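Q:
My hope is that you can spare some time for a protein that puzzles me. I hope you can help me see how the letters and the tokens relate. Thank you; the sequence and its tokens follow:
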Amino acid sequence: MITQMTQRFAIGPRETATLNTSGIREHFLIENIFTAGEIELTYTHYDRMIVGGAQPTSAALTLPCPESLKANFFLERRELGALNVGGAGTITVDGKVYELGNQDCLYVGMGSKEVSFASADAANPAKFYLLSAPAHAVHPTARRTQAEATPVQMGAMETANERTIYKYIYAEGIQSCQLVMGLTQLKAGSVWNTMPSHTHDRRMEAYLYFNMPQGQRVLHLLGESTETRPLWVSNEQAILSPPWSIHTGCGTSNYAFIWGMAGENREYTDMDAVPLDTLR
């Protein structure tokens, strides 16, 4: 199990415009989210979000407190969202056990000292996608299943972006300090996500692409609307999206993705639309 985190430093649109493919991948793509029997964490300097994954197998995994946090325990000054994209599992928070099935979510509030992750079946392990942001107040730990999430139907078959959005941690759902988290599932025959595109320079955003059929990919677009950059993304890989960047993608089949944000507010609708005819 890890004791240190990798780090990603923030860069601006001018620097991004000069990067080649390997540079774009180095700064914005997290290739390894889930490793059997381990917890993977990446500390980003975009709103100090931590992006990671826990994949317990035969033994439970305990959330570590990397030395670089300069804290007594991981959630001393932070909050955490965990969304399961694997088999059934549990998250234990200070002795209380929460069961999470596929696409169920748990919010863990600031001040929680001991957090551990376990799978119900090592042969079909849980895969907990983790997002953590700095917190300034205590909100209660709370679970929300996908059945309890707030579904919104968006898009249309004619524009190949028919999708269902499930909202878990947001202003009208599970309460948090600044963390926002949800899931989007594209319907069969639809491939575009977040189209028309948008930015929100008050919040960063991270995507985890998953439920991608074997051999398929998503072409993710980032950058300024007039200076876009492409990234080919595989199943269960994550994208970091700076506040100034668009974030949209097109798959070679339908897929799902988890979106998570942190910044000045938790308003899901706080976004600045980018007209299609301005994209370059």
The first helix runs from residue 13 to 16. The chain has a mean pLDDT of 94. The first strand starts at residue 6 and ends at 8. The chain has two helices and 24 strands.
